[in-house]
Amino acid sequence: MGDIKKIIDGSVSYLKYREKYSPVTLYENEVSIDKSEISTPEETTSEMPLKKSASKEESDNPIVRDDNSSYSLIREDWMEAATLDELNEKICGCQKCDLWKTRTNFVFGTGNPNADLVVVGEAPGQEEDKQGKPFVGRAGQLLTKILEAIDFKREDVYICNILKSRPPNNRNPLPFEIQQCEPYLIKQLEIIKPKFILALGTFASQTLLQTKEPLGKLRGRFHMYNGIKMMVTYHPAALLRNPHWKKPTWEDVQMLRDEYDKSTK
User: Fold this and answer.
1) Cβ–Cβ contacts within 10 Å for residue 68, how many?
2) Is residue 37 part of a domain?
3) Residue 125, burial from CB neighbour count under 10 angstroms (0-12, 13-18, 19+)
4) What is the CATH number of the domain that holds 185?
């Protein structure tokens, strides 16, 4: 029935839940990077503040953060989902944050449900919101080319985002929105059981690793997320704005491919 069913009825500390189900450590064979690398605007778009006092309205939500920076989890029907299709069906009408009021489509994720590689981005954009699929705009087209360059087809991998609904005007995700959506991603990963994660951009990387470190200091080496090897690199949208980041991105994905090949031998 899955590890998530071990959550007891009532509430438990979300931080303890993350510690048990999503421990983060550096991969033992990490590759060194230049610590003097200068941070870039893409890397520092958010300090990812996590503390938030729960209001009375928020306390009615199943997942909220209290004054001690912990979440409360109450058993919900979606936690029992055994497949991605079942999970999507159970959460596609989610209204835990206000993004449901402005979205056109809930963007759950697409790809191989048994993928060895899961690609995690930030949030749906305008085109993704229209089509209900992740990474289908200009950035998505570039992502497809990046994957093909390391011999992956889109149908070989699974692609999703931290947020499942588009923030208005493509603004940055808010901490409370991330808090509400992240458990869905944890469940997706539990169902898929990938061997590798490729985190794209600051928000995906900082959320999964629970850190405020800039992207430039996180990329270039492997991390571990709940036993899954994870590589961090720039978001394709950032590469469209800053072509000089393409070289380090290419280095990151080549490293990912090499490690993937070693794991399949």
Assistant:
1) 9
2) no
3) buried
4) 3.40.470.10
Answer yes or no: is 44 within a domain. no
As given in the structure block, the two tokens for residue 223 are: 């991390």
If pLDDT is split at 50, 70 and 90, which confidence band does 74 have? confident
Mean pLDDT of 14-33: 37
| 105-114 mean pLDDT | 98
CA-wise closest residue to 223 among 126, 133, 152, 120? 120
Q: Is 135 within a domain?
A: yes
State the pTM of this model.
0.74
Q: Which residue is associated with the tokens 């992956």?
A: 152
By the 10 Å C-beta count (0-12 exposed, 13-18 middle, 19+ buried), 190 is classed as: middle
pLDDT, tens only, 88-100: 999 999 999 999 9
Q: Does the residue 252 lie in any domain?
A: yes
Total domain count for the chain?
1
Question: Residue 140 above 70 pLDDT?
Answer: yes
Spatial distance between the Cα atoms of 256 and 191, rounded to a whole number of angstroms: 22
- Residue 138 tokens read as 């200009």
Residue 60, C-beta contacts closer than 8 angstroms, at least 6 positions apart? none
